[in-house]
Amino acid sequence: MKSEIPILDCSKISGSYDGVSDSDGFEEFAKQLGDGMSSIGFVYLTNHGVHHSIIDVVLRESRNFFELPKDVKMKYRKPDAVENFNGYTPAEDEQLNETVGTTNKSGHDYKEAWDSWGKEMLSEANYPSEVPGMKKSVDDFRLSLVTLCKKLFLCFGHYLKLEDPEFFLQRHRALDDLNIKSHNDIRTNYYMALNSSEVDEITEDAMRLNEHNDWGTVTFLVQDSVGGLEAKKTNGDWIPVPPIENSIVLNAGLMLEMWSGGHFPATGHRVRLLKSQAKTVRQSIGFFVQPDGESNCIPLVPEKKDWHPAYPKVDKETHFEYFRNRVAGSRAY
Ligand SMILES: O=C(O)CCC(=O)C(=O)O
Ligand SMILES: [Fe+2]
């Protein structure tokens, strides 16, 4: 399906990490990436270096978890989502409808999730013993994105003409060392299939996941072939973000919007629940790249004219405190 979201070929920056900023490919790619992030806040990445088998396996392993009996999954329910983000979120625990409330009748999202979070994701003990391959699949997925993520961060620094083009690298040291405190999160989403009588009741505005912004710096998102993801343009129109084979979606989070003074918007997005798709399970996986702990929430460049930040500017609050308040606000209980 054709999409108005730019498709970027990462092979242009596939050279070695050191010195990549000198190559022609880098300059061209940085411009395309920056323009894409400025206009919609979403781009597709192709030739991203994550082998399709890594994606297949992480989707399969997380599905193995979600298909376990409910009482088994509930053993892994997040104990306290504000202090510990690792583990299972049943559908009834979350409502990401912070911006506009197109709530389902039930008031929560039609999905379950598993989060592998911060340094917790390093320990086998924090994964379900019933799915022995899950930790490795999550590790492989994360590790295969780290180098690309760092190159993209260098591109952002160049595009925004930062005094220190490595600013983003320095605020994301946890990419290389998860022992550095951060909220980096790999979230696997499982949108359950509905039965026939539930499908009959679906209304036009039903959502699998309500409208929200992501909270970190960037999100790498892999979706299966079902579809339903949409992004909100600045004029308020919704555009589809259909699955494109072998691509990964990149979108800006609130922290990138803040640091870029509104030039890279944390575009609102949602997943629609269409009658035609509702009987099919949908899966997606996000790598939510978050700043290291004590980063401040202050723009680095002159703010974009008419910018209305979704993220309150707070020079005293660090991203950590902000994140904790946000998580607390998204809980359904
Ligand atoms: O499932 C999707 O395609 C989107 C998921 C998402 O936006 C999220 O988990 O924040
Ligand atoms: Fe999201």
From TrEMBL:
Q: Which InterPro entries match?
A: DIOX_N, IPNS-like_FE2OG_OXY, IPNS-like_sf, Iron_ascorbate_oxido_reductase, Oxoglu/Fe-dep_dioxygenase_dom
Domain Fe2OG dioxygenase intervals: 182-291
Q: Which GO terms describe its molecular function?
A: metal ion binding; oxidoreductase activity
Highest taxon of source = Eukaryota
Keywords attached to this Swiss-Prot or TrEMBL record, sorted alphabetically, are: Iron, Metal-binding, Oxidoreductase
Asked if the keyword Metal-binding belongs to this entry, the reply reads yes
Annotated family: Belongs to the iron/ascorbate-dependent oxidoreductase family.
The entry's protein name is 1-aminocyclopropane-1-carboxylate oxidase
What organism is listed for this UniProt entry? Folsomia candida (Springtail)
